[in-house]
Amino acid sequence: MLLWIHQHQEYIYIVILMIFLGIEIIGRVPSVLHTPLMSGANAIHGVVIIGAIIVMGKAESDNYLALILGFLAVILGTINVVGGFVVTDRMLEMFKKKK
């Protein structure tokens, strides 16, 4: 385990820096821009779902790890897309004029 961490130390640093950078960037986004950002995230997750389906289709039938991970990616990506659209729809309802 320690050897693996040492071999991938640069990647670990990059992931940690990306996490902090993402938190800083998203934390400074005005609330008016959250709806367009959510729509963009939904589009990205749609691409993830398509990629997972392609990977599952090209995986060998005895490669259970690839099939399970692909299935989980499809399920979690779909939940994220549907939830994102629900949140986006609710946020857009706030901007409609009330009767």
UniProtKB/TrEMBL annotation:
The lineage of its organism: Bacteria, Pseudomonadati, Bacteroidota, Chitinophagia, Chitinophagales. PANTHER family: NAD(P) TRANSHYDROGENASE, PROTON-TRANSLOCATING NAD(P)(+) TRANSHYDROGENASE. It is found in: Cell inner membrane. It comes from Panacibacter ginsenosidivorans. GO terms for biological process: NADPH regeneration. This is proton-translocating NAD(P)(+) transhydrogenase. The keyword Iron does not apply. Its EC number is 7.1.1.1. One of its GO terms (molecular function) is proton-translocating NAD(P)+ transhydrogenase activity. Keywords: Cell inner membrane, Cell membrane, Membrane, NAD, NADP, Translocase, Transmembrane, Transmembrane helix. The chain crosses the membrane at residues 12-29, 41-59, 65-88. It catalyses: NAD(+) + NADPH + H(+)(in) = NADH + NADP(+) + H(+)(out). It holds the Pfam family PNTB_4TM.
